[in-house]
Amino acid sequence: MKKKITVIGVILIAILLVVGGYLFHAHKAEEKPLEQTSKKTEKKLEKPDEDRVLKHADFEIIDNYNIFPSDNDKKALKEEVSTLLNNFADTLFNIDSSTSDYSNILTAYYGTSEDFDSSDVNLTANMYKEFMGIHMQSKLKSVEIAHILVRNTPEAKEISVIGAFHIHAKSDRMTDNDYAIPFNSVMSKEQVDGSYKLFTMSYSEMYKEKGFGLARMDDGSYNIGIKGDLVISFDFQNVDDFINQTEAPAGHTFKEEDYDEVN
Q1: Which of 39, 225, 224, 29 is nearest to 118 (CA)?
Q2: What are the residues facing 24 on neighbouring strands?
Q3: Entry pTM
Q4: What does DSSP say about strands 55-56 and 213-216: parallel, antiparallel, or unpaired?
């Protein structure tokens, strides 16, 4: 049975307001421990001066508590985090119409001990459902890490990672092109095997690759500025509403009859 489509005009308005803007992920020096950070990191919008020049966010490990004291410790941290993110993204974004439900594969990258009880692991099934709902086809190109912020949790070695997934994709909502998807993830050591596991994997916006950049803010904070042209905002909390909305980017259309009701 076909589902009645509702026009959600505010989505286009929101996109227009964001295009060309800077998106900030705030990180304070004194971070709350993992069990107190179940809410997604707040995203802030700001319109900087037109002549403001921000330094590109080259990779950096910010460890104010000397939890990873040696260069070898930091090197091992970077390698483990990079491997985890690449494996996760390799499953998440290498998809086409024949891709089966990979939700169980994604959940395996999340921690299972009681410290991870309030994670966002349940959203992984919605990711697959939403991508399939818009007939998305994509290939992972690379995973970029801007910084790893080490929190003051010596035993769990909790970290916050900001970066971007770079993909080539097309769907009912986007043309065949290269795109960048900034992400903010919290990870912690799983006490069972001592490896890093995901606590949260937060991402929603997709930008055109051309003109996209991660920038180091010049305000003395650990904020990362994200500059680029916004193409689409995913909504993994409200998958059905996202799939069945009738608005599409300018110059691109899709047919209402192509969308069945998603239960």
Answers
A1: 39
A2: 44, 225
A3: 0.77
A4: antiparallel
Q: Are 165 and 149 in contact (CB under 8 A)?
A: no
In the chain, the N- to C-terminal Cα span, in Å, equals 11
Alpha-helix runs per DSSP H in the chain? 9-18, 71-93, 103-107, 123-133, 239-244
Q: Residue 147 and residue 232: Cα distance in Å, rounded?
A: 24
Question: What size, in residues, is the chain?
Answer: 263
Q: How far is CA 225 from the centre of its chain?
A: 14
Find out whether 180 and 207 touch, Cβ atoms under 8 Å: yes
Reported as a single tens digit per residue, the pLDDT across 44-72 is 323 344 456 788 889 999 999 999 999 99
CB neighbourhood size of 229 (10 A)? 15
- Cα(93)–Cα(177) distance, rounded to whole angstroms? 14
Q: Which of 57, 42, 14 is nearest to 214 (CA)?
A: 57
Strands 230-233, 205-208: parallel, antiparallel or unpaired by DSSP?
Answer: antiparallel
3-state secondary structure 67-85: CCCCHHHHHHHHHHHHHHH
Paired residues of 23 in beta bridges: 45, 226
* Of the candidates 90, 85, 86, 24, the residue with the CA atom closest to the CA atom of residue 57: 24
Q: Residue 172 is inside which H or E element, if any?
A: none
Q: Rounded distance, CA 161 to CA 25, Å?
A: 10
CB 204 within 8 A of CB 236: yes
pLDDT digits (tens, 9 = 90+) for 227-247: 899 999 999 999 988 988 755
